[in-house]
Amino acid sequence: MSGDADPAAELITIPVALPGRAYDIVVGAGAIDGVARLLSGRSRVVVVSQAAIAAHVPTLLDALAGAGIDAELMLIGDGEADKTLDTVADLVGRFTRSGLLRNDAVVALGGGVVGDTAGFAAAVYHRGVAVVQVPTTLLAMVDSSIGGKTGVNLPEGKNLVGAFHQPIGVFADPAVLATLPAREFDAGLGEVVKYAFLGDTELRATLSSAPDTVVDRDPATLARVVARCAAFKARVVVEDEHETSGVRATLNLGHTLAHALETAGGYDLLHGEAVSIGLVFAARLAAALERISTEAADEQVALISALGLPTAVPRAGRVSGAELIALMRRDKKSDGGLTFVLDGPRGVERVDDPPAHAVERAFAAVGIRA
Questions:
Q1: Which of 83, 149, 158, 332 is catalytic?
Q2: Are 165 and 208 in contact (CB under 8 A)?
Q3: For the chain, which domains are there?
Q4: Structure confidence at residue 4 as a pLDDT band (50, 70, 90)
């Protein structure tokens, strides 16, 4: 079944047609069963996960055991603060002691922290072993598990060390979102609404017309949402795998400020929460630059608010604009100045070094003092 298939079907398969590295994203009930089929014939597998999502581990381990695969579980810390080079060093050391070889595989079972960290460990171990992504959060299902971006944080900034390492499969079962803590689920909506602003008009219509069904985790609605986001990202990844043409960089809408907020606040904001604030900032900055109308920016902010997402930095977590600008200059997209992804008359595109007065207006709109 293709990415344009009816998402109400039990399983939706979305191809990521990269030459020589093609793989499928499988979305739907029981998707996790596909992991064992994909890895059949491999002698050893390491499952990297976290204690906080232990409820989903037995299903995966039982499926692997049923396929005759020797699997070992390795846990990492639960927070963004554990997404570090130290964690990677610890993981690859454990890979070595477990006897993991180049033809074996790593399965990342969890949210973005697990996917990014385990994916990077797999990328550098033996110069690259296969990795399978099994996302258990909404944010990971629609974004971080897809496309091969892996990496960890430094004290100086988010995701500053990493590698492109495509998975050999992504398996997402939206049913696991039923038990996701409310804050984690809501944070995932920050990435979902990003896709709506990137030009997925059907997704935007779904979010605008029935935000309550999304917030209430209606299964049919979630299946449509996850599938549309995954298919959108898959198309962009195929077109620009390594962010060389600038097309893939558009997926960073809202992320320049978001990453700076996460770093400045010691990750007290979840990634999706920071992205939500970053989207408001990007909309107001685009309006300040007269790239879009004030009314268009208002519509974007209204949709973010309707989904119950934050539209400003919490008072307790406010930082200065000067501190954030310094962090944004170190962003991966930057060439030394300030680089944003903004909406405009030609759609979403990269904008370099906007004037200070426009940045200050956008800062003010999200509660940041210049």
A1: 149
A2: no
A3: 11-179 (3.40.50.1970), 253-365 (1.20.1090.10)
A4: very low
